[in-house]
């Protein structure tokens, strides 16, 4: 039988992760946002993708300068090429993973 403490922790984690993702949709349903807010929101997907991409190709350690990971950085070029040509994010992810795996295999990691 599951412990009540663990069950309560899981429920709290569910609420904490679910509310910030769903609440904005609930609050703005049927309402129009000001033009300044819409202009700001247009840049969010690009900013999020850039932050995720940069965090995956840069190795940061306390006390050292950040450095680019060579294999992951090389995999960016074909991935971005696929995104620019096809505008298909799923295909770009598949290409990025495949190129990274191929480069790691060829380099002996």
TrEMBL record:
The chain crosses the membrane at residues 40-58, 65-83, 89-106. Keywords: Membrane, Transmembrane, Transmembrane helix. It comes from the Bacteria. The keyword Transmembrane helix applies. The keyword Transmembrane helix applies. Pfam families: AzlD. InterPro entries: Brnchd-chn_aa_trnsp_AzlD (IPR008407). This is Branched-chain amino acid permease. It comes from Streptococcus cuniculi.
